[in-house]
Amino acid sequence: MSKIPLVDLKAGYARQKAEIDAAIQEVVTNTRFIQGKEVKDFDAAYAAFCGTKHSIGVGSGTAALHLVLAALGIGPGDEVAVPVHTFIATAEPVSWLGAKPRFIDVDPETGNMDPAELKGLMDGVSAVMPVHIHGRPVDMETISAIAADAGVPVIEDAAQSQGAEIIKTDGTVVRAGGYGIAGCFSFFPGKNLGAFGDAGGITTNDDDFAAKLRMLRDHGRTTKYSHEIVGYAHRLDTLQAAVLNVKLTTLDAGNQRRRELAGLYSQALLGIGDLRLPPVTPGQVSVMHHYVVRTHHRDALLAFLKENEVEAGIHYPIPLHLQPAYAFLGHKEGDFPVGEAYAKECLSLPIYPELTEEQLERVVATVKSFFETV
User: What is the pTM of this model?
Assistant: First the structure.
């Protein structure tokens, strides 16, 4: 019995191998390794994909957050609101700049930053950074209104949500990365749009902000040896841009296939044991980066799946406020009960466009078999 991987990068590569190999060879042949044409092409294509005026390719999703925070002047004495249920890369750039993350608990249904919790913790916050976790958009209308009342910017951490959509109350559709002052994306290999190494991007509709970000990503330069501001080495590698240009052409179709697979999972797993399935939330179109279920038997289920050659994952087992790196903030267990519950109960099942329905049925059968024994 062959193993079903949590993410199958080999299958994804095989699907577009000829085009990807040709794009890489073009860069190698022309030796445009730094800031080559492919970077400009990707910036234009990704802006069009997101429906924003600008996209700025950078070295990673973490670099994207770092640059946006730096461009906003976040520094010592500032606090940035971030959810407790996310990868540590959301909070790290805040710390790099000498500011502090202010942790916010998450919504019990979606796992995204809870607007009700945020509203009560806005005093003294310099920016709000919600995360479209697992590919599911945040309630951006409510969060943006809270931030606007406080006069602070919203930065979208859209690392997992390339192509996710927010349907506003007036019917307008905004893709992730098009709502706040900027959207920050990761193109880590396992993402819905994944490079062959670290890569990231920033979207914005602000011309001046985009110009500043382009300088900051490339040593603050205006010409080769003229540097207007102190910047960073956060450029998107040309080889990665070449890969992304190819893979972007099938991203919408891949996201749609993920939604179809998620629907099959939810139909088959409904009512099984104590499983809580991903909710369908009006006004939010997920790209299903992860298919996350919740159960009080999470660890036992994870072990059972592994025994039966099905890979699953935990995103994320330790909420940010309990990470040793942030112990200096003085939080303790019980401070953010919803985020803590997610950390104890969440389990990600395999989902990617190349997952076959036969594989999905085997995952479902294994989960059902487990709950027949508990």
Answer: 0.97
Q: Which domains does the chain have, with CATH numbers?
A: 9-104+113-248 (3.40.640.10), 251-371 (3.90.1150.10)
Answer for the pair 131, 159: CB distance below 8 angstroms, yes or no. yes
Task: Encode pLDDT of 87-138 as tens digits.
Answer: 999 999 999 999 999 999 999 999 999 999 999 999 999 999 999 999 999 9
* Closest C-alpha among 264, 261, 258 to residue 287: 258
